[in-house]
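idk why but the lab printer keeps eating my pages so im just putting this in chat instead. protein + 4-fluoro-L-phenylalanine:
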Amino acid sequence: MSVKREHWGSRLGFIMATAGSAVGLGNIWKFPYMAGDNGGAAFIIIYLALVFTIGLSVLLAEIMIGRASQSDAVNAFKKLGPSGFSIVGYMGIAAAFMILSFYSVVAGWTIAYIVKFASGSFVGMDAASLGGAFGAFISNPVQPIIYEAIFVAMTVFVVLGGIANGIERAGKILMPILFLILIALVVRAVTLPGAEKGLEFFLAPDFSKLTGSSVMAALGQAFFSLSLGMGAILTYGSYLGKDANIGKSAWQVAFLDTSVAILAGLAIFPAVFAFNMDPGAGPGLTFVTLPAVFDAMPGGLIFGTLFFVLLTIAALTSSISLLEPLVAFFSTKGFSRAQVTMTSGFLAFLLGIPCSMAMGDWGEFKIFGKNFFDLMDFLSSNLILPIGGFLIAIFVGWVITPRALQEVSGTGEPGLLAKLWIFILRFIAPIAIAAILINGLR
Ligand code: PFF
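predcted complex ->
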């Protein structure tokens, strides 16, 4: 029995959905800090170079495999080449569950912070008391899990709608809103008195801070940020028709993703420095320092609320793309979209509970020296995504090369760019990815 595969309503819809996958928590909370800490513009230049060579090549490879096979991540490899490569699809399924679990916990925090900001409960608090409030909130055994459930339910709701009426529509509505909010935040931040110091921290090139490990970190971040290596983009590509220009689409997605990462830095650091706050890393920057910054600025209640709306939107359009590969695969086993979407969502929610509890009572429970949250992050981001990306590069660069060239060039002769693409997938990407893999395991 074969049911006609659903397709995107338009190429723009595909771009918005795929950019939605790429633009996520990784762009807004991780990239800006990494750049600031690793030599500003020097890091950004390296990051851009990696995104537009290796990142873009693997991105196009995934879209191509999806489009050519019109199949989910497991069956795509079986259809196009030796079936052993379907291991990429199976690992992708595992990674999707793992990333969904911890991602949904953090996304739950962002929803909670919309509520807390908008209701004015942070008014008048300084960074120290905000830090205490954040610690108390995430270590609570009940509240964050309720917010996690709300976030997973939102994800399930969109995916239940299917490709054109669910995922595509969400992308077309949410991505423009995300851009508008981000631009409003950038304008607010750079017009604050004292903003220049933040621009300097984020942008002034300092090549002395650029080390081998910061280059590795840049490549790892490029991979995570473009949602590569686990079949999410492949699955989105499988809903494209034969006539779509996939080279151009891949380029546009990479461009949008990188623009958001850089704009996020321009929204964050000028504001942090204008109020003489500490640009420290990770969750602390997002959930402690920035709330304090917003509290101190004129119009902070609105801008603070908008910032957490921005994060929630970014997370939602990414989590949709984590759930859809699961749905695409399990639907081939004879279950309906509704059954698979709800079951997978529920399982991911359950896996999120120990991630959330790791912030509190279960924090002492360690596997390989990591709490459950960090373990899920490590296994997926540092292990499965690079291995998946490596195998995808080998698959397209060495195994199905003629078919791949035909997919990107249509009936014409493959041009210079297509040949360059294959060259990168053959030699450069596998070596570079093997290097991040080894580095990430140390
Ligand atoms: N690209 C997302 C981010 O930058 O936050 C994370 C992500 C989404 C990774 C979907 C992988 C994926 F399949």
